[in-house]
Design a protein that fits this description.
The protein is 47% helix and 16% strand. With 264 residues, it is α/β, with parallel strands linked by helices. The protein has an eight-stranded parallel beta barrel with strand order 1-2-3-4-5-6-7-8, surrounded by six helices.
Length: 264
């Protein structure tokens, strides 16, 4: 399971304030904490600010001063990403492209600028998919079109676009069905999701997120954009990995226990 740390996002007040003040030490500590907690990539998002381009570039430079962790550049602005993608040292992940015609065409120069991984939202000009069949249609289209512009299948992470169960009681079931079918019908592909969407507008959101995570991993989820500092979520991930036979001899689980990182 690949963990993308979600905390460097200017929609979070502490990050927004740190970016405004150019408080590099605060940003570096946030990144360090996520890496220590197991993040494989750091999502970097300055989209809530009017000065997104300058702020994203500053964040990329600050993070890379002290860390070799890979970055997930998170923006819907192709112009912003074009300026940032060349500044990233390690192979970047681009978050995100979709099957919407204008959005896809706008992102082509970004993903052709250098080798990268791509988060592909499984939505098109019809909007958010209403059923797993529509998700799969978009996966097929995105896979075909991304391969045409040079993106290898193993570098694509399909996002089934998780909806909130607070507005659709079957949202989680639909998402889990879509994840399972993507892996079954398109072998060798990857899936990813923004986990917290599932619990939007409900109390005790982390409880719902943790339960959904377990089911999503069982369905085949390859990666998740989460807060790696959620110790209970980290514990659930270790336990799930152990139960599904992905932790040989329980080494990772026992190491976490010895280090005092398990929280029930």
């Amino acid at each position: 399971m690949i963990i993308v740390g979600e905390r460097i996002n200017t929609s979070r007040k502490p990050i927004d304030q740190a970016v405004s003040a150019r408080d590099a030490s605060f940003i570096r500590e946030e990144v360090k904490a996520q890496v220590r907690a197991g993040a494989h990539l750091i999502d970097v998002n300055a989209g809530s600010r009017k000065t997104e381009v300058e702020d994203l570039l500053w964040l990329v430079d600050v993070i890379q001063e002290n860390h070799s962790v890979r970055l997930c550049l998170d923006s819907s602005n192709p112009g912003c990403l074009l300026k940032a993608v060349g500044r990233v040292k390690e192979t970047p992940m681009i978050n995100s492209i979709s099957a919407e015609r204008r959005r896809f065409e706008g992102m082509i120069p970004v993903i052709q600028m250098r080798e990268c991984e791509v988060v592909a939202l499984c939505m098109d000009d019809r909007g958010v998919p209403k059923a797993a069949d529509q998700v799969l249609e978009n996966v097929e289209k995105l896979l075909r079109d991304l391969e045409k512009v040079g993106v290898k299948q193993e570098r694509i992470y399909f996002d089934p676009v998780i909806q909130a169960v607070s507005t659709d009681s079957n949202a989680a079931v639909k998402a889990l069905n879509a994840i399972e079918r993507i892996h079954r019908e398109f072998p060798g592909t990857n899936t990813i999701c923004g986990l917290s969407n599932i619990s939007y507008a409900l109390p005790k959101r982390q409880l719902i997120n943790r339960a959904f995570m377990g089911l999503a991993i069982r369905a085949g989820l390859s990666a998740a954009i989460i807060d790696p500092l959620d110790r209970k979520m980290a514990t659930v991930l270790l336990a799930i990995s152990l139960i599904l036979g992905k932790d040989p001899y329980c080494k990772a689980y026992l190491r976490a226990f010895r280090e005092g990182r398990l929280e029930d």
